[in-house]
Design a protein that fits this description.
Length: about 425
């Protein structure tokens, strides 16, 4: 680079700063000027939005904000525009023209004068997802009241899904995310709905890693109980499993005690157990959708690699880790090999998967149901308790208590329509 080029560099920077300042000054002036809120409502049909703005265009107004909602075939279209410049009476002409156009469309119009744009949103912005099966008016009122009690304002509401559960998302400002989460968790438990609260920001849309427990999460079964059924020791294993999941027993000790009961089983039982595993409703949809969105997905289990490796291949997962049943001379020895995947081990594996995926922990999601998932749920950016034990529901960021694993998608702001559209596009 020569000296002349170096000397020319500051000029564009100065011009950019000046242009930005001028734009900012114009924005301030515009925000402080008179505006009109034009609301159109009635039966929805093609051409309404185009027709309204074509009508407004004759008066040289600028668009400040637009909101449109269609519910059961009825449209509410709100347009915030600058007041028309020109001779006195121009605004009256605009009002008359809009009302005349609305009548021609068999719709109603309302026009309200004011100053400036929407008031600034409060600090502390969150997305609140509410899942109901069904979602009642009573529970909705209670959730909304709690938002108000903690100083929040609901800026926007829209539906994410109408089945298999009703899911709506509230955009809330003015309340700290943690305070909002605590207050709504209490209310949700009382009302029998599920509520998830996550902070707003670009990270919500960033590429993420989702890591899930396997038994009673990705699948409906407890794998060791499937093995136990072939060894005629179901009752003994189930009793130890239940105590471990409640946090009453050390997981590693309980694992060794249960696996010991499988000693002598023929290795052919592995294929039988694989065929008996039942995926949780929505598991395939959840994983398929996450993969389409560029997420990486993994599973960790206190169960066995003989099953998780098969699940990884069948579901197209990126990561899988579990304990390994020792097999010698074609029979189970009643022991496991390698490091035990316990409560702390699941959290370590989450961190390892995140490092391998190049995703910070703040952009990870962990899903589980038992006490041995708690460290993993707490380490993740978002911990989801899925049909979990009480101790887990109380400790997790959010809880989902419906039997459909794909409802987790709604917590990430993904709608049922988007999922179905992606499936239809792929099939075609």
């Amino acid at each position: 680079m020569d000296d002349a080029s170096q000397q020319q560099l500051p000029a564009p920077a100065t011009e950019t700063a000046a242009t930005a300042q001028a734009s900012a000054d114009q924005g301030v002036a515009r925000d402080a000027g008179p505006t009109l809120l034009v609301k159109i409502f009635g039966k929805d049909r093609p051409g309404i939005t185009a027709g309204l703005f074509d009508t407004l265009a004759a008066y040289g107004v600028d668009v400040v904000d637009i909101e449109q909602v269609v519910t059961r075939g009825r449209i509410v279209l709100c347009a915030l525009v600058t007041a028309p410049a020109g001779a006195p009476g121009t605004e009256g002409e605009l009002r008359a023209t809009v009302h005349s156009w609305a009548e021609s469309m068999r719709m109603q119009a309302e026009i309200i004068s004011g100053i400036g744009d929407n008031r600034p949103r409060g600090t502390g912005r969150s997305h609140v997802t509410v899942l109901g099966h069904p979602l009642t008016a009573e529970s909705t009122a209670a959730i909304a009241a709690r938002v108000t009690e903690v100083g929040g304002n609901i800026d926007r509401i829209f539906r994410l899904a109408k089945y298999p559960v009703t899911a709506v998302e509230l955009t809330v400002s003015g309340a700290p995310t943690e305070a909002l989460r605590t207050a709504l968790a209490i209310e949700a438990a009382q009302r029998g709905v599920d509520v998830a609260v996550v902070a707003s920001g670009l990270h919500r849309r960033a590429q993420r890693l989702v890591v899930m427990d396997v038994d009673s999460t990705v699948i409906q079964d407890e794998v060791i109980e499937l093995f136990a059924a072939h060894a005629d020791c179901e009752a003994q294993v189930a009793e130890v499993t239940a105590a471990a999941m409640r946090g009453e027993l050390d997981f590693e000790q309980s694992l060794h005690a249960r696996v010991a009961l499988l000693e002598g089983l023929d290795a052919s039982v592995v294929d039988k157990v694989r065929s008996e595993v039942r995926l949780t409703p929505g598991a395939r949809t959840l994983i398929r959708t996450l993969k389409r969105l560029g997420y990486q997905v993994g599973i960790v289990s206190g169960g066995f690699t003989q099953v998780t490796d098969d699940l990884k291949e069948r579901l197209g997962l990126d990561f899988a880790a579990a304990n390994t049943l020792e097999i010698i001379d074609g029979r189970l020895t009643g022991r496991v090999t390698g490091d035990v995947v316990d409560r702390a081990g699941k959290a370590r594996l989450l961190r390892r998967f995140a490092a391998q995926a190049g995703v910070p922990l703040s952009q990870t999601v962990a899903i589980g149901d038992g006490a041995n998932d708690l460290d993993m749920l707490n380490a993740a950016g978002l911990g989801v308790a899925f049909n979990a034990k009480p101790v887990v529901r109380e400790a997790a960021d959010t809880a989902v208590n419906v039997p459909f694993l794909d409802t987790v998608l709604y917590l990430l702001g993904i709608t049922r329509d988007e999922v179905e559209a992606a499936d239809l596009h792929t099939e075609s």
